[in-house]
Write a structure and sequence with these properties.
2 copies of one chain form a homodimer. Chain A is α/β, with parallel strands linked by helices and 174 residues long. Chain A has 6 helices and 6 strands. Chain A has helices at 15-27, 49-57, 71-81, 97-107, 135-138, 165-172; strands at residues 3-6, 83-89, 116-119, 129-132, 144-148, 160-162. In chain A, strands 3-2-1-4-5-6 form a 6-stranded parallel beta sheet.
Amino acid sequence: MERVIIDMDEVIADPMGAMITWYNKEYGLPVEYSKMKGSWLLGFPEEHQKLIRERLYEPGFFRDLPVMKDSVDVLKEMNKRYEIFIVSAAMEFPNSLKDKYDWLMEHFPFFTWKQLVLSGEKRMVFGDHMIDDHVRHLQHFNGRKHLFTAAHNKDETGYERLNNWEEAASVFLK
Amino acid sequence: MERVIIDMDEVIADPMGAMITWYNKEYGLPVEYSKMKGSWLLGFPEEHQKLIRERLYEPGFFRDLPVMKDSVDVLKEMNKRYEIFIVSAAMEFPNSLKDKYDWLMEHFPFFTWKQLVLSGEKRMVFGDHMIDDHVRHLQHFNGRKHLFTAAHNKDETGYERLNNWEEAASVFLK
């Protein structure tokens, strides 16, 4: 069985979407997608970026994230055909660890706790495929690299892209 | 730089020791080391094993563990010469995740959060060396396997052993 390493944030969970929803409600200001190159944080007005960053450290933020469209259906099927590990570089946000566990078990009940990895970085992980929105994680990976499209990586070239989970299905479930 | 994957429980942290200390104080009963084959839990009287197991799930238990003798001094030096990752199969105990992060940052301040991995299992991790007290983690590892001696693995054969951190120093810092 081929092993597929799958990221959480911006791939199966939507912290950017949750933050924008909260920010719009709280401040009524727009975010600028064109400024998100490298990090979606940069799309928020500069005077609020510190506040946005602080929210990421708060317990609970990663517990209530929306699920990325089609990810549950596609991964439910992929889980029968591949050895799947969900690997999140979460250690920068230690209050997110239990939240991420609870979130995954709630929304993806077909996964077991044996399939979750919460790490500082990902260079020690190996497998046949990696699906991630960050080039910094893909670049060290030994297997086939799939850049999952996100606002912050629109300009990246040189990686095979998955634009959404429908496309992932066409690659992994064909 | 060679990569060394190092376990937490029974290798740098001492949950068995903490549990025995608590149990002796609470019940005044002895544990039987000869019965610990496979799991130190089996050394506790059968009627209390459920209670002992429940304690492992409680928030806080993994926060206050003793540090294994010489591990801080040896790893401080190893951290200069190797790429070290501390990898703990902690996901069975989701309340332990933040505790393990806090414990490591307190007792091993020369490590950064980038070096910690909390996972369900370890078969997706690769490196040059693995130091672990469980054969189930060593058996899938690609590199050199070092069985760290613990009460539950005394009878294991077929693996190179490290009986303590002084021995680890003689292997890794010679």
